[in-house]
Amino acid sequence: MENRNIALVDLLGPASSDSKSKIAKKKRFRSLKLVNVDLEQELSQQPFGAAYGRLDNGLSYYVRCNPKPRMRAALALAVNVGSVLEEECERGVAHIVEHLAFSATKKYTNHDIVKFLESIGSEFGPCQNAWTSADATVYELLVPVDKPELLSEATSVLAEFCTEIRASKDDLEKERGAVMEEYRGNRNASGRTQDAYWALLMEGSKYADRLPIGLEKVIKTVSSETVKQFYQKWYHLHNMAVIAVGDFSDTETVVELIKKHFGEKISAPNPPIIPKFLVPPHEEPRFSCFVESEASGSAVMISYKMPAPTLKTLKDGKDLIIESMFLRALSQRLFKISRRKDPPYFSCSAAAEDLVSPLKACIMSSSCKVKRTVEALESMLMEVARVRIHGFSEREISIVRALLMSDIESAYLERDQMQSTYLRDEYLQHFLNKRPVIGIELEAQLQKTILAQISVLDVSKCAERLRTSCSCVIKIIEPQASATIDDLKNVVSKINTLEDQNCISPWDDEQVPEEIVSTKPNPGNIINKIEYSNIGATELTLSNGMRVCYKSTDFLDDQVIFTGFSHGGLSELRENEYYSCSKASSIAAEIGVFGYKPSVLTDMLAGKRVEVDTQLDVYMRTFYGSCSPSDLETALQLVYQLFTINIAPDEEDVKIVMQMAEEAIHANERDPYTAFSNRVTEINYGDSYFFRPTKISDLRKVDPLKACDYFNSCFKDPSTFTVVIVGNIDPSNAIPLVLQYLGGIPKPPKPIFHLNRDDLKGLPFTFPTRTIREIVCSQMVEEQCSVQLCFPVELKNEKMAEESHRVQFLSKLIETNIMQVLRFKHGKIYSADVYAFFDDHYKPAKTGCVHGDISVNFSCDPEFSSKLLDFALDEISRLQIEGPSDQDLSSVLEIEQRAHENGMQENYYWLEMILNSYQTKTYLGNVGTSYEIQDEARTNVRNSLTPSDAQSYLRKILPYPCKSQYTAVILMPKRSRFKFLDIRSRDAKILAGLAGFAVLAISLWRHSRHALKS
User: Fold this and answer.
1) Distance between CA atoms of 140 and 138, rounded to whole angstroms?
2) pTM
3) Out of 2, 86, 90, 98, which one is annotated catalytic?
4) Above 80 in pLDDT, residue 978?
5) Has 175 been annotated as catalytic?
6) Which of 175, 378, 441, 815 is catalytic?
């Protein structure tokens, strides 16, 4: 049920509409009767809820009506073709075909598909519209359907992908650069580590050397004929399915639309049968000690490979539920170990993952301190062996049973409110992996029945499948070598011996309190109440001074979200206080901000859908969380505990936090991007201690007592906090809970952090007044290059609301145009991002101007970085001089409008809007009026923004001309000093020395590659 392992809980489908209340739905779930289950009963292979069929040409289709989000449709074209089908000379071609689809087809040329998607408000970007795996390629679109022609056009686009993708020489040359940049982006520490692990997992099968990204030499040199041949050979309609889930009036009309656009498509005759590639099992475990000099830390991974499940009967579903319970129970133990005195690792968990079509794996992974990987491995293997000998306890299994029951209850309650993208993905799995879709009503009833039948012994037996003799792969990752293969083998041998001799003691569990709040507080009362009908919200002022604003919605039946904030944060600290207090959140979280250690609280909350956390920002302190409506009392109890418990430093907890902080600093020192980001920060924000990178010496200045005192003071005075609650709230139930647990928070005798927005201390920085352009060189294993271009922005106070909206529109306009130039015209980048920053670094005062910046970020080939930076500057300059085209501006406005329409149907959107209305400069005591000012400003900007206006505002908001004031920092690889030697020298000794050095280097490289494979 986790990690897309498609247990019964993952086979969710919507139910028929129901007019009864949400509370009745919940009672109905809890009163679902257990049924007699025949475990040999086969699950229906007919996908629940969809019009499902196959056209005469072999194409499968799935169509389903679903109202969320309104007037939107989630479309997909699934192709049972992935990188495993490539020949050696084609490695990466399946992914190249995916790229070419959006570049040119028979009907669409010159990235017209991208322009169409943006024109209807559907964004195009990395990982948003398509993906390629070893076994499949999937194209995805999320499009509006408020106009019938939009759905028809989007369906036509997918139909083009079936048979009409163009792969001319020019098309391929235009797209090579983007694919190459995607490849380069993966050649970092994380990518190298994952690729090496993949090869180890798949050793002995074709999958081992068929990663979807392919080979650099193929990407750079493959011919258009080779790409075309691969496409024509494998892209056959009987290997494809089109899926449409959306806010349709009926399915029949959409099926007819599919028949219209796909029905006349014809694939080449006699298509080849797609072969099955197996991954051979092995009894002897495989070991790898992977040294990655840029790694973010040390880690251990243990994978137990097994055949991918075939989900045909109820017994198959029960087996997957048992496996999910086992992995959750094991993860709970591993988490508790990570919170013990001097733990072997910082974090550890277990999960199942689908690797390729025929294979899955149960994977245990941990992050640990440098030079402690062997100890971490021993602890991980020890726990699995402990379960094999002693099993889990009844209490442990009752906890995970409650967790799974909670998950299925939540899905059941929101069965009519599922996102179309989620349902689309279920049908994708039905087509690609033959996974049943049976519907949530049957799902809930079966799972409730089966969970009650699963015993502790059933779950504990799963540990038998996690033996090192069961296709096990053990890998450690270290920035510097400290462990050897023999060390790993010795650990395995040691644990096996201890298990054989029954020398592993039983698990010693912690005692868990029954109640979060031992003594319930006396409720407060309401001293003022205001209804804001324009936003459907109610504001209460409580007797302790806390302000609570709630908005009831029907977007999701099982969701309530909230945030409480108070002005005043880290900017108020002096330098001698900063180092201690900036670590307050980390230290407090390790101790337990709600009065209980995290490992204990996890058990206390078992079966409850509730999360609460805190954050200390530059200008604000916040607590935030989410819960089920039935668990609102628990969530508010945690907030009460936050304000009434005083945390005190514990030596062991502080030690763990400081070790993690030290590891993070060392990781940054190894990361080639650290020098780059530090220099960007230093140039744009100065050398203030707020922006200065933390050093090991700074950690020595941390006073744990001062950190805890600061954290306690941050959440002590309720009168300074405003709390916004949004979701499925029944005021008759919620308000008494608010009064008891929020109103019951005692107000301190003297105000604490009683700061107005205008009183806040701003951060000490000024953007440079001149142009700065620098190159930062970092030592790298493989060449990476990143560019950041930054401009200062100043918003005038008199029209702040409209100005901030203009900045957002113009940032998106700049991003779209830079993508057009750098990717679609020159083909030299994969993606570009443009951000406007005002919140984190800029004082939110009511008066005066607001200063910020707009940054442009992209990665590229180091050779072209300066030239591409100039192209970006030229394009922004052109927009200031000529203005954008009507089409470009229209697309940006449409993207924003569609995002706004979707947001209006989401609780998180409304939470953010109401919070912003309280925090913005337009707030003068009436949140409804503040919201109207913001909304009216957005509308005014949208309705009035013309190309000439955009040109004018680009001159006004950015420096004009833009090349007169900006900062640009380029990260470049540090070249070897040998590269700069003059090889024309006649000194034979130098030449001989270089030759000898080269031979040695090659020998070491070959040896390292050989060691990696073994």
Assistant:
1) 6
2) 0.90
3) 98
4) no
5) yes
6) 175
